Amino acid sequence: RTAAGEAIRGSGIGLSLVKHVADSHGGKTWVESRTAAAGATFVLALPVSKRFLRRPARGAGAPEN
């Protein structure tokens, strides 16, 4: 349901797809919730390649004109 209380229809496979993606890439999924009234946050965490981390950011180290 949305904040306005409207029912949202769906196929119900969203979380299953997210779990499949996470598992396929060595990631994790979990749910965080403080109270039932506050709702829930669904988290998807994926690892970052070491090769990606060694690459300088765009423009980093480039000479300034």
For the largest beta-sheet, the strand count, sense and barrel status come to:
2 strands, antiparallel
- Beta-strand proportion: 15-25%
- Structural class designation: alpha+beta
Rg: 19 Å
Describe this structure in words.
- A two-stranded antiparallel ribbon has the order 1-2.
- By secondary structure, the chain is α+β, with helices and mostly antiparallel strands.
- It starts with 13 loop residues before the first helix and ends in an 11-residue tail after the last helix.
- Strand 1 and strand 2 (41-45) form a beta hairpin.
- It is elongated, with a radius of gyration of 19 Å.
- The mean pLDDT is 80.
- The protein has a domain at 14-54.
- It has 2 helices and 2 strands; from the N terminus they run αββα.
List keywords for this structure.
65 residues; two-stranded antiparallel sheet; elongated
Task: Map the helices and strands.
Layout: H1 14-24, E1 28-32, E2 41-45, H2 50-54
Antiparallel strand pairs: 1-2
Quick overview:
This protein is of the alpha+beta class.
